[in-house]
Each structure stands twice: as structure tokens, then as C-alpha cells.
Amino acid sequence: MFKDATTEEINAVMQDAWNAFHVYRKFSLQQRADFMRAIAFELEECGDLLIQTAMKETNLPEARLRNERSRTIYQLESYALACEKGDWLEARIDTAIPDKNPPKPDIRKMLVPMGPVVVFGSSNFPFAYSTAGGDTASAFAAGCPVIVKAHPAHPQTSAIVAEAILHAADKCKMPKGIFAHVNGISFEVGKTLVMHPYTRAVGFTGSYTGGKQLFDWANQRKEPIPFFAEMGSVNPVFLLPEKLKSSVTEIATLYAGSVTLGVGQFCTNPGLIIGIESGALQAFIHDLGKAIQSITPGTMLHQGIADAFVTKREEALMQPDVHLVAESAAAPLEKQGQPTIATVDGKTFLANPVLHKEVFGPYSLVVRCADKNEMIKVAKYLEGQLTATVMATGADINQNDELMEAIKNICGRLVLNGVPTGVEVCLSMHHGGPFPATTDARFTSVGADAIKRFARPIAFQNWPDEFLPDELKNDNPLGIWRTVNSELRK
Amino acid sequence: MFKDATTEEINAVMQDAWNAFHVYRKFSLQQRADFMRAIAFELEECGDLLIQTAMKETNLPEARLRNERSRTIYQLESYALACEKGDWLEARIDTAIPDKNPPKPDIRKMLVPMGPVVVFGSSNFPFAYSTAGGDTASAFAAGCPVIVKAHPAHPQTSAIVAEAILHAADKCKMPKGIFAHVNGISFEVGKTLVMHPYTRAVGFTGSYTGGKQLFDWANQRKEPIPFFAEMGSVNPVFLLPEKLKSSVTEIATLYAGSVTLGVGQFCTNPGLIIGIESGALQAFIHDLGKAIQSITPGTMLHQGIADAFVTKREEALMQPDVHLVAESAAAPLEKQGQPTIATVDGKTFLANPVLHKEVFGPYSLVVRCADKNEMIKVAKYLEGQLTATVMATGADINQNDELMEAIKNICGRLVLNGVPTGVEVCLSMHHGGPFPATTDARFTSVGADAIKRFARPIAFQNWPDEFLPDELKNDNPLGIWRTVNSELRK
After folding, report:
1. Which candidate in B42, B230, B327, B374 is catalytic?
2. With bands split at pLDDT 50, 70 and 90, how would you rate the model's confidence at B389?
3. Contact residues on chain B for A422, CB-CB shorter than 8 A
4. Chain segment A170-217, per-residue pLDDT in tens
5. Across the interface, which of B422, B457, B464 has its CB nearest the CB of A430?
6. In the A/B pair of chains, how many CB contacts fall below 8 A?
7. Residue of B nearest to A456 (CA)
8. How far is A30 from chain B (nearest CA, A)?
């Protein structure tokens, strides 16, 4: 039904986006925010049709999809608010000092949009990290046109959302080319989009394989471009002794829920739980296993993901000295993911890189370290992560400084006594992390700071007030925060 | 005298840097700033020996080197001040909302250092963009240890500055490994440093050839790392008709000075001057040529740069339809660069990519466009630039909207009625620009925002006050600006 876009079609889309860029970037922050709010409105207007289409294409339950649409609307509205407020513009003004030797000129700097942004959405968030998701909202706020490569797992859902965006664009009198929706199952379509000379930045949410390949292409261009990929992680959880001892059952119950939430299909799913060999750890493993047995398998996003889960789960369980702790008592039906807990000792874990890889789905591996030093080793040896979690008392934290430092080193978000699943949309959120969690640890894909991925500074030297953008004019007509002669003021 | 570092030596240096990182990153902003001020003090203490050594190695005149040392000291001191103030940390706090459904946790975010930073200094700024230059200052402010690859054109100068840094480190009780100085003429040393697993970011100032090769290596690592290279540009100057007509001689005099300043060895040297065919443009070319004839050739940084200037100048002058306008009346002596102005018509320029490339030295090409549309074409066709300059009256600006937009699109700094040479060190400065001016248009290498190249966010979720860094504690003990529940406050 959805045919891959041809190179000619992509060229036409990119030409339109390039033309639109020159118009859209001159639109005020207010106009951009209004457009984003109009998209939010249209998403709501899509009504049940959108939910039902997504249910069919993703197997996600209705309640979850309704929540996700609300979240997507909230993202659009909250980034719109941030866009208007303009804190993200990093406006800086240094006024002239004519009698300095040599004279110091007037210089004013702010962020401006980079140009057309190509967005690759994820399969597990058909709304919030797809067609009108966080990357699209960030790019529109920054002043960039967006070209979405429809996710082949939910093309119909994506098409409905694309229609909603185009409808909003129409209502807001946006230039032709402000948004385009490109279909493509083959890698070739993605490559053509990333390599196109008019593409100025890319946002990606998905697997390491896809993200890394596109990242390499982005860097191999004649003019390399910023490429931000969020590629998931195993999100290690460190169980510290005092805390574990005092709350074995609570932690087991909490994590049985977190590991299986949404059939384990979150990029913040805790795929690794690390403890120190002890009676308490044995009791925790026992309780976690018991809890997992009673959790029913759920249907996964699509056949490909279900098959990959079976394969990767089997591969992990087949590794020497990995033991199955428990799986759900109910056998999985077609396309279902079976909740599974396995365990391995620390030494074996350290020696086997297969065990460090994400098994996307309701699976978690409990690593039993011989002692504190082995736990530190594991923390130091792990790859970059979106999140790390520490279950600890105050005494645990005070007695484990080296461990805490090692953990901080590998993650983007550090959770204390909670679960990594559940990513709050707010300015303080960091949804990012060292490679391979993302391709650039300096940026986030959740929260309004995500806008900065698609904007670059420009400095105006010696320009009179009348020709400066409103954001930098003397009397601050937009009332934004600016750093004037090194002091933040409004 | 200076032997290339072996792989074993580099491994040892990187291990020390990695160890130092874990200590230094816990040092307070105040301690970092004190260290930077101590380096500034030691640079001054190096006295005449440093100036004389640099004079011998770089052929730069004494006054220039004294000024450059002052600038380097100012950079260290002003980034130290910025480091202490903490605006760059982007501290964000969103407090918990326990009765939200699901409950919103307390989340707090700030920038933290990435790890050891490798710095490749430039030959043309032996102090300000070399061993204790802007990249080193930025990394120390961010909380990162620094490994400088000594520039082979001024190894002795670099060694003296390295000693000064180590002396300051000693005085400030910095951990062993906070700074290292590595010699290396071969590309292999640079490659080993960039590819080393403990290297977490790179700052580079130099040529496109060197920068691009190192950038590719940084991206080919198992774990790609942020690599910021400032690789120079041709810095186009657009002469708009009304302005040119009214100020032919003034502009010619201004630009004869800018083109030959420091024997043209600035990355902001105006290598391209673009006008529209007219009597005024002819008069300008005549006056510029006349002024150039009277400027004496100067000694260039080293034999390699002087040879490259001769070759590239010849190559440019040999291109079809390029005409020599004027060169200095005095013939150049050994290692001297001969001030040169050439001219070409717009159509030929557009068709010949050789003419778009930088001729590093006192050379500029005047492009004569047939009309306004051809000037727009030239602006659209140019590669990314550190700077672009517009010589224009208010009427010129008002009548050339498409041109102004095209120019904004390609540059990091836009100068009005001035010269691009002279880069003020202040927060509003943007010394960066789209590729190939730099490898990432989102960052600057001058001004305290340069610190952000070497820092990444981390979010703390649900951590009690006592375990949070001071920057994020409830009562804001450091008195820094933070965004609390979406509002900036102190």
C-alpha cells in the first residue's frame, strides 16, 4: 500500500523543505508555538480513528495509546511554551566599548535554525517518538522544516498523523514544504534522506544497527551534519547491600513490574540488575522469579520484534553459566513476549560481551558479583547508558564512592530508589547518554533542551538596532532572558 | 630534539589523565577557576624567554606575541570567571509532584565534564590557540584533564607553556595527569591520541586536511566522541552598491589592512571580496591594488606555510580568467608572503571550485558579479564560513533581503561595515560556523560558551539534598542561576 519514495520524489520534497526553511525561519517564536499548538489540536481531533489504527498496527493497548497521545500533545504544548519563552535561544549581548584599544564592537548572539531536519521515528512510541513526536516538535520549535521517514511498522498511523500536521500547517498558513511524510521500507530511502545536501540535521530513535548506520552516512557526507540517535540501552540497576537487605520483597515487586511494563518495550527497560552475592540477593532473585512467573505474556509491537526477542533471549540463555531463574507460567501465544529472568555470576558477565547487549523485551539478567570490587568493575566496564539506577540507603551511598563515580560516568540519568521506566517530560529531564546509548552525549531527546539539537549560534557584529532580530534588539521587545555584558537579565 | 611519543608513552599519559579525571571532576568551580588563574600567572612569569622563543619559532613580531600572551591570560581569567559563575552549567530543577498520576519525581540536571580532552593547537596562535589556549582553558573549566599534542612548528614554545601549566598544577595541588604535553610530528601520534579509549573529546584548530582526517578517525572509533575542529575559511565580504559608491577609498584602505594583517595568517582573513560590476567597483579594485603595492611582504610562520602560500597563490592566479590586480612592489624575501590581489568575474568564480578555497596568507580575490542575482548565487553557492561581512547602507540592506538571508545561512558571525579580522573574546562571540569552517556549527571555540563543547548533562532523579552536587542543592549554596520549575532564578 505504501510505496518506497523514489529519489526524484525525495529530491522534490527536500527542495520544498529548503524553500520553506527560508520562510519559516523568519516566523516569530509566537508563530512557531501557534503552529505546534495547532498540531496538538489536530492530533486530538483525529479521535478514535487514530487510536484504533495504532492499536491494529502496534498491538499496544488502547489505554496506553490514549496516554501516549496525551503525552505527545503535552510535548507539543510544552515545547511551544519553551519556544515562546526563548530561554533556549541563549541570547547574549556585549555592548560596544569604543574607547577600548582596539575598540570593542557591539556583538550579539542567538541560536538560529539549522535547516531541514529529517526525523526517523521509533516503533515503540508510535505517537510520542514518531511522526509528530519529540524530534518533530523540537525541530519546529527551532525553526526547521521537518521530513519524517514513516516507520514501516505503523505506516497508516503515521499517515494519519502526517495529515493532521499538514492540516495544522494549512490553518497556520505555513509555507509549502514545512512538513513532509516519506514512506520507505528499504534502507536506501533513509540513506538518500540523510545524504541529501539540503538535509541539515537528523533525529533518530530506534535500534543501534539502524542508528549507527545512518550516523556513519551522516559523517561520510561531503558536508557532515549533526546526527542525534537515541539507540536504547540496558539500563543497569545496582542493588546496594543495606538497602537490599531491608527491602528484598519491595524491590523484587517493583522490578517485576518495571521489567515487564509495556512488554518490556521501553528504551529505559531495566535489562540488568547487579547485586553482591548474599542471602539477601538470593532471596531477591527468588522473589523476582516468583513475581515474574505470575505475569502474563503480552503481545509485542510486531512480528519482527517478537522474533528478535525470542532469538536474543535464547542467545542470552545459551551463554555458558547463564541460568534461567524464571519465566511466566503462561506460555506465550503468537507474537507474545514471555517475561524472563536469568542470572549469571559477575566474573562470567565481565568476560562475555554478549551479556552486555540489550534483549529488547521483558527480560532481565541478574548479575551476582562476588564482592563490592567486582561490582565496581562491572560499573566501569559497562557501555554508555540512558539511565542507571541505584537502590541504596544513605550509608550505602556514603560507603561506595568509587562505585557511584563509575556509575555517573556511564549514564545520562541517575535514578535513586526508583525504576528507570517512565520518562518525565520536563526541562530537567535528560534522555541521552554516552555512546552507544546515543551518538552525542551532549544532547537530549526529551525535554525542551532537545530543541538545541537543531539550532546553531550566529553572532551579529556592529549591526544597528533596526536590523537586528527582535530577540537581540536593545529594548528586548520579546521580554526574553538574555545575558547582557555577562549578566543574565530580562 | 623532540621525539615522537611512542604508543606506550601515550597509553601511560592517557591512564594518568583518566585517573586525574576522577579526582578533578569533583573539584569545585572555585578550585578550577583558581587553577586557571594560576596558569595565567605562570604565563606572565615566563617573561621574555617565552616571547623570544616564540619569536624564533614563529617569526611573529614581538609586539604581536606580547599582545597574544595578554589575550591568552585574559582568556584564562575570563573563562575562570565564567566557570565560577556557573551559567554554563545549565542547571535545571523540577521539583516533585507526589500527587500527580503517576507521581512526578524530583529531577535535577546539570552539565558535567566528559573526560580527558585532547587538544591540537594551531601554528598561527602559538599562545592563544595552542598549549594554554582557548581549548585548554575550556576543558579545564569544564572539569576535564587536558592532553596537548605539541604543534611541531613551535615545540619549544609549547614546552615552556606546558612547564608553566604543570607548575600551576603543582601549586594548586592538582592530581597527577591533569595535564600532559605530547610531542609528535607524525600523523600517527595524533591518531593514537584521538583513537585512545580514554579520550572523551577533542579540540582542534588548524587546516582542513588535518582537521577532517582527525574528525574521521574520531567517528570511526568503537565509541565515537565529540570532535570540534575550527578549520578556517575564506570569510567573504559583500560590497553593496550604495555603500561602495559612497566610500570607495575608505573601504579599499580598510581592506588592504585587513587582508595583510599578520601576513594574512588569520583564520578570519578576508580572502574573498564580492561586488557588482560598476564604476565604483573598478575604482575600488584600483584603490585596493594601489594600497597593496605599498605594503611590504612579511615573514610567514614557517617554511611550510610560506611554501604553501606560494603554491596556492600560483594555483589561484593560474586559473582561467583570473587576473592579477596588484602585488606588493617589494619582492618577497625567503619565507615572506607577498601581498596579492586578484580578480575574476562572477560566472567564472561560480564554475571553478578551486577559487572557493582558502589561500592562507596575504591574498584576496575580488569577484565581479554581473548583477545582484549573480551576487545572491555566489552567496548561496559558498561553503560554510567562520564569518561573512556586509558593507552596506540601510537602503542596501533593505533592498537585498534574499542576499542577506543567503549570507546568514553560511556563516557563524556576520559583520556589518567592518572587517572580520579581530576576534573579540566575549560571551557573545561566535567563532564557529557551518562545515567546513568547523566540524559542528553548534559550538564555538572563542568565548566562554566554548566550555560546553566538553561537558554533557546528567539528570539526578529522586536524590535527597545531601547527596546532590552543590550546584543542585535546594538552598543554592553557590548562588548560580538555575531554571527551577521552568523559571530562571538565582
Report:
1. B230
2. very high
3. 102
4. 999 999 999 999 999 989 999 999 999 999 999 999 999 999 999 999
5. B457
6. 200
7. B442
8. 18
Are the Cβ atoms of B105 and A405 closer than 8 angstroms? no
Q: Would you mind telling me the total number of residues written for chain B in this entry?
A: 490
Catalytic residue among B46, B83, B144, B267: B267
Cα dist. A439→A135, A210, A490, B211 in Å? 15, 12, 35, 20
Amino acid at A257: G
Q: Min CA distance, A59 vs chain B (Å)? A: 23
Query: In the annotation, is B230 catalytic?
Result: yes
- Taking an 8 Å cut-off on Cβ atoms, the answer to whether A429 and B109 are in contact is yes
Q: Which of A230, A358, A374, A471 is catalytic?
A: A230
DSSP A399: T
Q: What is the DSSP string of B282-330?
A: HHHHHHHHHHHHTSPPEE-SSHHHHHHHHHHHHHHHHSTT-EEEEE-SS
* A229 vs B contacts (CB less than 8 Å): none
3-state secondary structure of B460: strand
Nearest CA in chain B to A215: B219
Domain A7-231+440-489 superfamily per CATH = Aldehyde Dehydrogenase; Chain A, domain 1 (3.40.605.10)
Nearest CA in chain A to B82: A486
Q: How far apart are CA B486 and CA A84, in angstroms?
A: 13
Residue B170 C-alpha cell reads as 603543582
Give A-chain residues touching B93 at CB under 8 angstroms. 428
Q: Do B424 and A104 touch (CB under 8 A)?
A: yes
Residue extents of the structural domains in chain A? 7-231+440-489, 236-416
Q: How far apart are CA B414 and CA A460, in angstroms?
A: 5
Quick check: B267 and B436 in contact, CB under 8 A?
Answer: no
Query: What CATH architecture applies to the domain A236-416?
Result: 3-Layer(aba) Sandwich (3.40)
Of A152, A123, A125, A438, give the one whose Cα is nearest residue A306. Answer: A123
Distance CA B306, CA B313 (A): 10
Which residues does chain B have within 8 Å of residue A449's beta carbon, measured at their own beta carbons? Answer: 90, 92, 457
- Chain B nearest-CA distance from A15, in A, is 14
pLDDT in tens, chain A (490 residues): 679 999 999 999 999 999 999 999 999 999 999 999 999 999 999 999 999 999 999 999 999 999 999 999 999 999 999 999 999 999 999 999 999 988 999 999 999 999 999 999 999 999 999 999 999 999 999 999 999 999 999 999 999 999 999 999 999 999 999 999 999 998 999 999 999 999 999 999 999 999 999 999 999 999 999 999 999 999 999 999 999 999 999 999 999 999 999 999 999 999 999 999 999 999 999 999 999 999 999 999 999 999 999 999 999 999 999 999 999 999 999 999 999 999 999 999 999 999 999 999 999 999 999 999 999 999 999 999 999 999 999 999 999 999 999 999 999 999 999 999 999 999 999 999 999 999 999 999 999 999 999 999 999 999 999 999 999 999 999 999 999 999 999 9
For residue A432, give the nearest of B93, B435, B457 by CB distance: B457
Q: Write the ipTM.
A: 0.97
Instruction: Give chain B positions within 8 Å (CB) of A405.
Output: 22, 26
Start-to-end CA span in chain B (Å):
53
Active site residue A267: yes
CA A303 to mean position of chain CA atoms? 23
- Return the SS3 of A327: strand
Of A46, A83, A144, A267, the active-site residue reads A267
Mutate to test the interface with A, among B144, B383, B442 (most CBs of A within 10 A): B442
Q: B2 pLDDT band (50/70/90 cuts)?
A: confident
Decide: helix, strand or coil at residue A183. coil
Residue B61, amino acid: P
Nearest CA in chain B to A405: B22
